[in-house]
Task: inverse folding
């Protein structure tokens, strides 16, 4: 990295630290903690999965000036976080440190996908058509049991790199695996079998689907246990995103019975989702997804369930999830029914429809009414708004700015 690029990065590190040490950041931590502890003071706001490439070349604060490849990535990442902190009215916390993840290999399932993709211009969203690579019982053996390996030398190399680059300005910390209990079995399964094929097999070949889910679950459990045994986990009480939601700050993690310097799965958030089951009955959802997912979630201290699938008619089966704390309330959920059928208090993690940012013109009044309706129908449930899966904003960054401003105003005004 040349001297000019180094100077750019160090300047941005200083700006990061300046923003991260503002009192508003500590206040956001306090508010997230209250919300995740089921003692909310107000609904919270987060935006993610923004199609930056559509407009970053048009916004001065996002334009990358470095020449070195690594410096360009680093500068781009820092600029996006600083733009979010300064220009988007949200509750995202900018932490006063730079995280270096532990270098790990040997995890995953060992099966590649075969697919056709349709690119969507500058959007990060793509269309996929998956070709089956697991079609019968013999193919299930393609899923390999993991052997986790921790590369201490590689981890320290990157820690030293960043610490030397800007550690005197922005502290650098090695961070373990944030959410080892993140289990998206059905997202993976349909990539290997094909979507239509998997849904038909639930009816035509249930024993095949059960055998495949058993293998996927066993691989995930082995991976989790190895990470825990090697003490490669991070505590879930942080600003890192959990599930398909937002910050994981809570006073309830780590659990009180933890040994000093020991971090267990019980000190983390878990997450599961079966998005492809939107039109599958609750009984089949329980049998082919939730019964397996609960083996994973049972190891975790608090849990988040769901993503884009509507869950209003599945609230009864969700009561079987151990220590369930947050439920995704997608754009296709009947919110009032979710609240009515809830067996206890949860955080409702609202996912407004991102299509509102992709129309010919952004309809601000409609966006506001959608949020207010969601809050009304949620009753006394703690709430958060997560705008995600944004395929396009038509190259107009102002739509992102305006949505955040509306959401923040609605959330600070209350129901």
Result:
């Amino acid at each position: 990295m040349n001297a000019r690029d180094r100077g750019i990065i160090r300047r941005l590190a200083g700006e990061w630290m300046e923003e991260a040490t503002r009192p508003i950041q500590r206040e956001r931590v306090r508010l997230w903690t209250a919300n995740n502890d089921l003692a909310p003071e107000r609904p919270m706001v987060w935006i993610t999965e923004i199609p930056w490439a559509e407009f970053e070349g048009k916004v001065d604060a996002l334009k990358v000036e470095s020449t070195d490849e690594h410096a360009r990535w680093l500068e781009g990442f820092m600029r996006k976080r600083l733009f979010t902190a300064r220009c988007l009215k949200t509750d995202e916390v900018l932490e006063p440190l730079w995280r270096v993840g532990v270098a790990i290999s040997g995890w995953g399932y060992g099966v590649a996908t075969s697919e056709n993709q349709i690119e969507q211009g500058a959007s990060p969203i793509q269309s996929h058509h998956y070709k089956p690579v697991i079609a019968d019982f013999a193919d299930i053996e393609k899923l390999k049991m993991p052997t986790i390996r921790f590369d201490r030398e590689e981890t320290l190399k990157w820690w030293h790199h960043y610490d030397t680059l800007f550690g005197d300005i922005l502290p650098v910390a090695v961070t373990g695996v944030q959410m080892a209990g993140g289990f998206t079995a059905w997202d993976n399964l349909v990539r290997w079998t094909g979507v239509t094929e998997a849904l038909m097999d639930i009816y035509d070949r249930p024993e095949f689907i059960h055998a495949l889910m058993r293998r996927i679950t066993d691989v995930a459990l082995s991976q989790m246990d190895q990470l825990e045994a090697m003490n490669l986990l991070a505590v879930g009480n942080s600003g890192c995103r959990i599930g398909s939601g937002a910050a994981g700050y809570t006073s309830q993690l780590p659990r009180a019975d933890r040994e000093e310097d020991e971090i267990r799965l019980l000190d983390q958030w878990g997450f599961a989702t079966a998005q492809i089951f939107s039109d599958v009955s609750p009984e089949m959802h329980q049998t082919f997804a939730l019964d397996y997912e609960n083996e994973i979630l049972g190891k975790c201290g608090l849990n988040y369930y769901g993503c884009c699938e509507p869950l209003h008619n599945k609230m009864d089966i969700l009561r079987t999830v151990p220590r369930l704390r947050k439920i995704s309330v997608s754009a296709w959920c009947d919110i009032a029914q979710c609240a009515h059928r809830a067996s206890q208090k949860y955080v409702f993690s609202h996912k407004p429809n991102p299509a509102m940012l992709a129309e010919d013109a952004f309809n601000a009044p409609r966006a506001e009414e959608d949020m207010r309706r969601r809050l009304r129908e949620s009753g006394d449930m703690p709430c958060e708004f997560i705008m995600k899966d944004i395929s396009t904003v038509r190259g107009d960054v102002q739509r992102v700015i305006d949505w955040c401003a509306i959401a923040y105003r609605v959330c600070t005004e209350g129901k």
Q: What stands out?
A: The longest helix spans residues 206-229. The longest strand covers residues 324-329. The domain at 3-413 is CATH 3.20.20.210 (TIM Barrel). The mean pLDDT is 94.
